[in-house]
Predict the 3D structure of the following.
Amino acid sequence: MKQYGFFIDSSKCTGCKTCQLACKDFKNYGVEQNFRRVYEYTGGSWTEDKGTYRQDVFAYYTSIACNHCDEPACVKVCPSGAMHKREDGFVIVAEDVCIGCGQCANACPYRAPQYNAEKGHMTKCDGCYERVAEGLQPVCVGSCPLRALEFGPIDELREKYGTNADVAPLPPSSITKPNIVIKLNGNARPTGDTSGSIANPREV
Amino acid sequence: MASKIVQMLKHGMTRRNFLQTTSATGLAAAVSSIPLPFKVSAANINTDKKPLNKEKVVWSACTVNCGSRCPLLMHVVDGEIKWVDADNTGSDDYSKKDVQVRACLRGRSMRRRVYNPDRLKYPMKRVGKRGQGKFKRISWDEAYDEIANSITKIRKDYGNEAIYLNYGTGTLGGTVTKSWPPGKTLIARLMNLNGGYLNHYGDYSTAQISVGLNYTYGGWAYGNSFSDTENSKLIVQFGNNPAETRMSGGGLIHHLRESVNKSNVKMINIDPRYTDTTVGFSDQWIPIKPGTDAAFIAAMAHVMINENLVDQPFLDKYCVGYDDKTLPVSAPKNSDYKSYILGAGKDGIEKTPLWASTITGIPVDIIVKTAREIGSTKPCAIYQGWGLQRTATGEIASRAVAMLALLTGNLGINGGGSGARESDYSIPFVRFPTLDNPIKASIPMFLWTDAIVRGPEMTAIADGIQGKDKLEVPIKFVWNYASNCLINQHSDINRTHKILQDENACEMIVVIDNHLTSSAKYADIVLPDLTTSEQADFCMDGKAANMPYFIYADKVIEPQFESRSIYQICSDLAKRLGVEEQFTEGRTQEEWLRHLYAETRKIDASLPDFETVRKQGIVKRVDPNGHFVAYQAFREDPIKNPLKTASGKVEIYSAALAKIASEWVLAEGDVIDPLPIYTTPFEGWDSPMRKQFPLQLTGFHHKGRCHSTYGNVDVLKQAAQQEMWINPVDAESRGISNGAQIRIFNERGEVLINAKVTPRIMPGVVAVGEGAWYTPDAKGVDRNGSMNVLTTQRPSPLAKGNPQHTNLVDVQLVTRA
């Protein structure tokens, strides 16, 4: 079985969200869905001394869509079978089968499946598998102004960039074995870190 | 452990999502107890859809004022744009200088601007008060009659000096369609055939730096192209933030990223905010109080002088006024820069790091270390953005940044810089001729509201009037094409609102735009303009370091509703005013494009022909010189290649400024000085007003908008929210948590907005992205975070520019998060 994945270069990412909006435009979704989300993780503190300031502030962005996991939590809990992993490794929801129960959304530690009120069922990133079948990239990848996203067979990406898939605020990759490789930002904190927090909760 | 971390991402849920998820789970509980007859296996699901075969792909462009210019590939089905792709041509290999010009989040959302519910559908005439947004539909003929009659009447009653073309950058970088500079638009051509109009100089982007650095370098000040940072050993940026201002993937943030990848050098960012540029390069952030950069630089100069890190031979050979050796004869004793730094100047203060530390908020050791690092690492690229010049002391502060480049001799060399903003190589292109304006009077752009109220009182020495000693008449007619500067982008919205309420003052306002913007609501006549998607134009002027390009943006869809092109509007009005033949010269819009391109090919015969360009959409070039190195010829031979200053050299001490300082009438506290000294602004960090309004408010460019353009696109508003940045120290003392609704206020107005409580801004400073659409409630309180409710119309001393980053405010909690 083939398995594709994403390479996310967090060292380059400036949090512009072009990936998020390119996806939204191509897939024609409104404000309710964010198949790709850009998390801002920020921390650090300030001290004042005689009118001057010292700080150890840090911030970085991580762009996350569906990671098309080896052990997708969404598929495990889906009662209808709508959520499934394809032969090409993409995890997708069969929208004509989904009953919109939302269990997948609760199970996924990355918040990939999202309820669409208009449609009455779950929706999610499908890896643009139709484009991939035509030899194209997922729309988000080719949109990145910083060239911080790459797409390809996960074996090849891991050979090029290593195997790291962990960084705060993401969950441990051991839970679902996501098919992503993350290059860390200079400010990166490990998964489980509590020195910072998601700074843009209303945007993701 | 795992579940706790899982909740961290869940923490990002909006209330809306939360409610949906909860109710969906409820549904699951109900259905999961019964057998599911429709459970199917993955193999049975046919999700493969055939691609649409009737789709066509048309090149267009995003023509807004971000400094970039992105091609867009419009995917069209049955005359409707279905989705927007970016440039996907070529290898996208930076090392081969073959780069895709990838649009940012805004360009990718163009479809939602074109099909926006705010689109203007037909000409309208105001029926309520200005600003109320009450209009009645009229025909194009009625609209043309109203406008032509008003022009004729105002020319007769006041003369053409009473007709003003308001600054506007809603449609930028075209040949036919461009709205900026107003003097190079079709409106200018129309008016120049009808007696002319009142000129302006300066703009909201660069008023202070363009005037300030003119006295240092002579003319517009250039910087090395970002591509040249591949040759740098250190990069120092003052308020320069391409990750949020020039976001194109073929524009400057991409060039900076790729070039720094090559040199692999450290970048120091000096800014009150920890910007996204700082995130993307993650080296060193030096937070600084707004308006104090010149003090930081003076103290670094002190360190460099005392530690012999100054490039004395460079200063002796190329500069005027570093020390007494090169002072002009007209200058008083001890009026040189070195004397100013060492305490021998007229203020008698030694500019020590200790002196600067309390002014800037930067600890002494960081000032010293930074000075040593800059002084001993060569070449060092020193840049400034336009944030620190958009202040009440912006002219002098912009000159101060140049001092760092001069003291260290980094001017005119690869890997170095001038301390100005980065420059770019561009492809010459013949533009639409707009003819000569018979009116010579010119006002500082920022004072257009004053020119409505007190035009004939405005003089050269008090108000910076150029072309004549004083204005004769006030502004009576305003053209406002593709511009939200009539209310939204101009300072002190409440003052502008009051000025525009008087219909006997400015008698006619014509707004031509795509959407019912905040400004359009102030129109007497409003005309619906075509978007870039509905007409053809060449589009260019995107800043792209050493890899310039231009775009042929074709007509993608038919004009929506009754909207018409600016070319048709002006041609129709020209006919009403009896100058149609002179205006059109017998050409259609496409014939003009072909004509201008034929003229361009006379300059550069290697360009492909018109039909080829139309098909390929984008023409890319590479700077034959490698990189743009500002003032390289001057550095190589200053005698043969002098600067355009009076002395031909870099003027650290400007005799011209000394003369202006002695002659001009200035407001109390305003300073014009021949040297780039530190001076404290009105409403600065040490103003007595801080007792009442303790927070400094600065603005920034917002990712979801280009100024105000795209400000009505719902998905962008969700993805990049309009919030006020505030440090936890200032937020906690006011009971404000992240996401709380707050009010920002000062004597000029009040804004409601949500708080982003973040350590990414220094204590004592708050920041708001400029450009949110002014949306007042019945009490006049803006409810959309429109910053200019809080900014002042008091101009800066020399350029008479907009000090929109110099404000004092206070903030209070309204509703808890």
